[in-house]
Automatic annotation (TrEMBL):
Residues 191-402 form the Tail specific protease domain. CDD domains: Peptidase_S41_CPP_like (cd07561). This is Tail specific protease domain-containing protein. GO terms for biological process: proteolysis; signal transduction. GO terms for cellular component: outer membrane-bounded periplasmic space. GO terms for molecular function: endopeptidase activity; serine-type peptidase activity. Coiled coil: none annotated. InterPro entries: ClpP/crotonase-like_dom_sf, PDZ_sf, Pept_S41_N, Tail-specific_protease. SUPFAM superfamilies: ClpP/crotonase, PDZ domain-like.
Amino acid sequence: MNTKKVIIGTSLYLILSVSCGGEDRRKEYAEFTEIPHWIESVMRENYYWYENIPTKGLNFFAEPDVFFNSLLSNEDGKRRNGKQYYYSTLKDLSKTANTRSLQQTEHSYGFDFVLYKLENTGSTTAIYAALILYVVPNSPAERAGLKRGIWILDINDKTITEANYNMLSGGEAAELSIGIWLENGISRLGVCSIEAACEIEDNPVYYYNIYEAPDNGKRIGYLVYNHFTAGKTENDKAYNGDLLEVSNIFKSEEINECILDLRYNNGGLLTSAQLLCAILAPQSALGKSAGYLEFNDKYNPQIEEITLNPNNLQGGTNLNLTTLYVITGEATASASEMLINTLSPYMKVILIGMQTEGKNVGSITFKDDRYTWELQPIVCKIYNSENKSDYASGFEPNYTIEENKGTNLDRFFELGNPNELLLNAALNIINETYQENEQKAVSRLSPWEMTPIHCSLARRATNGVIVR
């Protein structure tokens, strides 16, 4: 009985493998399916949840991205609005520039934004508008005079909608209808002209300054750090060098408190996170454990230790802080959260803003010179020195403040302005003059219902801390 089954199966295989003219087509089929086979082999060896990959029913004739998604676990990523958003990714490098740095924006106007649907309680009509979060220096947006807090309502006389907001990410020279937020909503300012999108350099060390608390004389360093990127290209370390330079400036200015603004930082490289941790940590923590990476049980070793390495500080200095104030937002994720988790055992970390994303995992990039595809699966879970990795739901802030809610928008000033909502709150907390109850009362007064539709920061979100 078993022999008969084998004969039938072999006969069918031979029939399917030979064309009507007797030509053997198995080699052609192998060439057509080799990319899915490569993807599967990498995933079965390296994927953190490899045990959840189906063992049957895989379609190796599917397009690579479709095949890749069929391998992914529901433990990978987050479920939002009934849809699973995976952290593991597959990219076709033939459609993207693979020579640019991790976060450098290609052919952009040079600003990040959130698209909102705005509904007034006294009206049945909704409008869509894009709020500028920040503008990249030396970009078309900066040259056009655009600033943080400006609203964009139209582009080339076309009202911004859910269907066309991607025009704001880059394109030809354009005319933008802009406005500002007043108490009763958006007031139109007029039209500004913006140059065609171009390749820009988005340095993560966006802004830094030093403030003095009036009541206690504390000197406070403030750093806006927008992504964990070492340099302009894969082997460049210029941005890490800028971090080290800031550490030297803060040290020479004798700061004794520090505010780290990560509200728009959705992750990046493990090595850059280790560097910033070494700068900010108490001196007594240097050389000690920063935690470890836990890979799947096929890895050898399965556990990879990471340290607060003082050797990373060559060209810079440790600030020997005992408390760190971190401004967070809903985009704060990945390496930003790793920094919070890593430093918490060694110092007091106070979070100001909104709950973070909750990416406690890391990824590795896999390439094969034969293919144009880049595979970046989640390969590990990240723990601190106290074996804690319990932030998959995000870190809750000690002080919850939503910068773009209601009448808080009248304090949506430039980053670094001491009256800007979140920086001002942090300064007042350090100065011991912050009144939380007043802040909550103000936040409830707005007649506007604001629903976020899209945030441009998502384009550069990393799928977990990039281990290597």
